[in-house]
Amino acid sequence: MPKVTAQGKTVECESGANLRKVLLKNGIDLYNGQSKLINCRGIGSCGTCAVRIEGPVSVVNWRDRARRSFPPHSSERDLRLACQTQVLGDIRVTKYTKFWGQGAESVWTPEDA
Ligand code: FES
């Protein structure tokens, strides 16, 4: 089973599991601030579930690419929308600052909460 390491925790999930669901189910703070309450619940439209992922995941789908091409996101950043991403192997996840997770500083890293 793939292992997901995020915010100081390592959890297991099924191959193909939705990353947003895995993180939320395991109490990992996917959303920053008010985006905990104001988000699209995983339909790929709000962009607040953006994270950086190291390791094998599904290819970028059109929703993920489209939303991250819109400000304040930028297609130049190596972020992904957790709600549009399936876990395919052991991965490490980092969350960045600001409402959409588009900031330059990390909020948490794979190892640090
Ligand atoms: S939860 Fe809104 S884009 Fe992922």
Please characterize this protein's 3D structure:
This protein is an alpha+beta fold. It has one domain (3-108): Roll (Ubiquitin-like (UB roll)), CATH 3.10.20. The chain has two helices and six strands. Strands 1, 2, 3, 4, 5 and 6 form a six-stranded mixed sheet that branches. A hairpin with a 2-residue loop joins β1 (3-6) and β2. The radius of gyration is 12 Å and the shape is globular. FE2/S2 (inorganic) cluster is lined by residues 39-40, 42, 44-49, 67, 81, 83.
Shape by Cα distribution = globular
Name of the CATH architecture: Roll
CATH class label:
Alpha Beta
Q: How much strand?
A: 15-25%
What would you call the structural class?
A: alpha+beta
Largest β-sheet summary: 6 strands, mixed
Estimate the mean pLDDT confidence.
97
Q: What is the terminal separation in angstroms?
A: 23 Å
Total strands? 6
What ranges have pLDDT less than 50 throughout 5 or more consecutive residues?
Answer: none
Integer count of domains: 1
User: Gyration radius, to the nearest Å?
Assistant: 12 Å
Count of DSSP H/I helices: 2
Q: Which topology does CATH recognise?
A: Ubiquitin-like (UB roll)
Question: Would you list the SSEs in sequence order as H and E?
Answer: EEHEHEEE
Bound molecules: FE2/S2 (inorganic) cluster
Please identify which CATH superfamily we are dealing with.
Beta-grasp domain
**Portion of residues in helices?**
10-25%
